[in-house]
Design goal:
- The protein is α/β, with parallel strands linked by helices.
- 25% of the residues lie in helices and 37% in strands.
- It is built from three helices and nine strands; from the N terminus they run βαβαββββαβββ.
- It starts with a strand and ends in a 5-residue tail after the last strand.
């Protein structure tokens, strides 16, 4: 199966982030935070945080790609010690490809879920094989397509 390239322009990407924020808006409850992964998750998380007036953004350092090569996955920066006072957490990334990153970070978040906060997974793009892992997404991408983000060029 040959890999196709899907180039995403800035204006489309930002518009999609706004749409994702609208999807998440009705699920904000009490103390809400965003958990995201460097590097791809930073941009949609920032836009969504501004749109929804969410001031808490936590970074969970997790790397599963080296260039275009998929690796084993490694957490190099964990979550803050205490997130138990939160009522809602949005786990946000730019794309859910194989679900390895999201499932590993979701596991870290769930391990701190003492008081039963709501956890939602949101992504701008999702590959067809992984769409079941996202609670919210804007565009489904075929599995044989490599998404080239505007910040990757």
């Amino acid at each position: 199966m040959s890999v196709q390239i899907h180039n995403v322009e800035w204006n489309k990407y930002i518009r999609y982030c706004y749409k994702l924020a609208l999807c998440l808006k009705k699920h904000i409850g009490g103390k809400t935070a965003i958990v995201t992964m460097p590097r791809g998750g930073y941009i949609p998380s920032s836009i969504i945080a501004y749109q929804l007036n969410i001031s808490r953004i936590f970074s969970c350092g997790y790397q599963s790609y080296v260039g275009k090569e998929k690796g084993l996955g490694e957490t190099y920066q964990g979550l803050p010690r205490d997130i138990s006072d939160l009522e809602t957490i949005f786990l946000i990334d730019d794309i859910i490809d194989t679900n390895k990153t999201v499932s590993d970070v979701k596991y870290l978040i769930d391990s701190k879920n003492i008081n039963g906060f709501n956890l939602y997974v949101a992504s701008v793009f999702v590959k067809s094989k992984s769409k079941e892992y996202a609670d919210f997404y804007i565009e489904e991408i075929p599995d044989n397509v490599w998404v080239k983000f505007p910040y990757d060029r």
